[in-house]
């Protein structure tokens, strides 16, 4: 909790500030998470890692307004945009203004491109409908974004004509064209074939270098290590370890929980003598 | 083969085509008006409000359980007479077919709307689209593609079921056929097969293009 400094005034360097966030489902005994606090400074990347079921996707979704919170506050750019209250467990997506929603860019695991629109249509829909921007200007920007993710030649392709990796890059462009304060990435490579993961993560790294504020949930540890400015380890709905030095977290984690978690990504095959013998017999057959 | 000559009698074909026109008119108006009714019903069926849900459930079940003929009789002989409502036989047919088509299309629409993945709604929300914009630009276009095959099937069923209009005294293609057969009973005793054969072909010519269009669109949208 050392990082969460209580400030009364507005802090121009903090993009997102989450304070004492609480979340539970209507008929569940256990809280999904209980009293989570952290900040994402402007232009920085915060990566949330943790075992499956630790609540990290739910945390991201709650910040995005897709799930109601039962306690705590979410502040964007110095303004509290949501205060949790108990009893709203079943109320679904949070009522937020259209303008506020566009300040969060979100990319999901998969199936989030609109299949009835081509690539350009997907990217330009919200700027045209929500922000009421001019069509030629929006299309120009969309093409520039596509150029950045090396997909300029696929502007008129339908989503089903694209590979999984290409789709995720288009989804990133679609989020970026709204110029969000913060980009939320929810395991965007989890549904991809391994050979496509790299092309997507490369784009995200370029965004980080360009100063895009991001909050990322991922299972890709090498990616997390490469991109994170700060890291949070979430387990059982609690922050088990946090670090403002990502490299330090991945090489010298402070807590036993973090060591255990990071160790689970190392593939070391331990064979005892009995297993060795059985394997040799099997090979001999 | 001699019976086939009944088709060459002057006035037979024009009269059959006039009858077919009545059939097509009833079917086309019914289908056209069923579409908005069905879309609204389908949308209502997806709502969580228990009262609306119950009302829609009763409506759908009532229409499904009742034979179309019974509905036609209720509308024409029952309701129209009881309330002294000046509803002619064609109007009664159109009314019943809209209620029927609207209910069935509503159920198809409900299924199509509910089959759209939740993440599509969530993405629209994140992009700042209003509920209405999300429905019109994201959810409905996808739902329409999914409900198309079923609704074309429904349209052909409506075309075929218009033949029940005979029983309310509407002079549509079947009735015209019967009149032609009756008028030529002595001259062409075996003409029945030929007249009904032509009517069969007429129904086929109306319904077949519908399924061709449905098939083509299905193919085009297969991957979307």
Automatic annotation (TrEMBL), chain A:
Could you tell me which PROSITE patterns the record lists for this protein? ABC_TRANSPORTER_1, ABC_TRANSPORTER_2
The superkingdom of the source organism is Bacteria
What SMART domains does the annotation carry? AAA
Transport as a keyword of this entry, yes or no, is: yes
Pfam families recorded: ABC_tran
The alphabetized UniProt keywords are:
ATP-binding, Nucleotide-binding, Transport
Locate the ABC transporter domain: which residues? 16-261
Which one of the record's GO molecular function terms can you name?
ATP binding
Family from the record: Belongs to the ABC transporter superfamily.
Q: What is this protein called?
A: Glutamine ABC transporter ATP-binding protein
TrEMBL record, chain B:
Q: Supply one GO molecular-function term.
A: transmembrane transporter activity
Record's Gene Ontology CC terms? ATP-binding cassette (ABC) transporter complex
The membrane-spanning stretches of this chain are 20-46, 58-79, 193-217
Q: Name one GO biological process term.
A: amino acid transport
Report keywords, A-Z. Cell membrane, Membrane, Transmembrane, Transmembrane helix, Transport
Q: Where is the ABC transmembrane type-1 domain?
A: 20-214
The protein's location, in the record's own words, is:
Cell membrane
User: What membrane topology does the annotation report for this chain?
Assistant: Multi-pass membrane protein
- Family recorded in the similarity comment: Belongs to the binding-protein-dependent transport system permease family.
The name of this protein is Amino acid ABC transporter permease
Record the organism. Answer: Bifidobacterium italicum
């Amino acid at each position: 909790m050392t990082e969460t400094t209580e400030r009364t005034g507005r802090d121009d360097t903090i993009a997102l500030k989450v304070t004492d966030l609480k979340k539970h489902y209507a008929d569940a005994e256990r809280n999904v998470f209980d009293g989570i606090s952290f900040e994402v400074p402007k232009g920085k990347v915060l990566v949330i890692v943790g075992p499956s079921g630790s609540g990290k996707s739910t945390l991201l979704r709650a910040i995005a307004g897709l799930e109601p919170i039962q306690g705590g506050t979410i502040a964007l750019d110095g303004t509290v945009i949501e205060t949790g209250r108990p009893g709203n467990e079943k109320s679904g997506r949070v009522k937020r203004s259209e303008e506020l929603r566009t300040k969060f860019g979100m990319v999901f695991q998969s199936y989030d491109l609109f299949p009835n629109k081509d690539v350009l249509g997907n990217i330009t829909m919200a700027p045209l409908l929500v922000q009421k921007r001019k069509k030629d200007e929006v299309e120009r920007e969309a093409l520039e974004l596509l150029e950045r993710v090396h997909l300029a030649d696929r502007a008129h392709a339908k989503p089903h004509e694209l590979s999984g990796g290409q789709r995720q890059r288009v989804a990133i462009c679609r989020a970026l064209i709204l110029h969000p304060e913060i980009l939320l990435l929810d395991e965007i490579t989890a549904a991809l074939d391994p050979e496509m993961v790299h092309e997507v993560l490369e784009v995200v790294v370029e965004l980080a270098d360009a100063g895009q504020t991001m909050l990322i949930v991922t299972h890709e540890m090498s990616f997390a290590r490469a991109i994170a400015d700060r890291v949070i380890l979430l387990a059982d709905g609690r922050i088990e370890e946090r670090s403002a030095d990502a490299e330090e977290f991945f090489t010298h984690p402070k807590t036993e929980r973090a060591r255990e978690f990071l160790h689970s990504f190392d593939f070391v095959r331990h064979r005892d003598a009995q297993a060795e013998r059985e394997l040799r017999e099997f090979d001999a057959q | 083969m001699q019976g086939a000559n009944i088709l060459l009698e002057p006035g037979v074909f024009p009269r059959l085509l006039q009858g077919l026109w009545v059939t097509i008119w009833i079917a086309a108006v019914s289908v056209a008006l069923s579409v908005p009714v069905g879309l609204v019903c389908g949308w209502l069926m997806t709502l969580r409000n228990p009262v609306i849900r119950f009302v829609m459930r009763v409506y759908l079940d009532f229409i499904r359980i009742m034979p179309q003929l019974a509905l036609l009789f209720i509308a024409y002989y029952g309701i129209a007479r009881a309330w002294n409502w000046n509803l002619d036989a064609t109007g009664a047919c159109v009314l019943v077919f809209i209620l029927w088509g609207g209910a069935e299309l509503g159920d198809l629409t409900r299924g199509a709307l509910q089959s759209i993945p939740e993440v599509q709604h969530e993405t629209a929300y994140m992009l700042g689209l209003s509920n209405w914009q999300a429905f019109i630009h994201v959810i409905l276009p996808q739902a329409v593609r999914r409900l198309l095959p079923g609704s074309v099937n429904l349209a052909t069923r409506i075309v075929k079921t218009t033949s029940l209009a005979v029983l309310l005294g509407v002079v549509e293609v079947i009735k015209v056929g019967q009149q032609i057969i009756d008028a030529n009973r002595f001259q062409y005793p075996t003409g029945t097969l030929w007249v009904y054969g032509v009517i069969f072909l007429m129904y086929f010519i109306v319904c077949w293009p519908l399924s061709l269009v449905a098939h083509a669109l299905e193919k085009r949208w297969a991957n979307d």
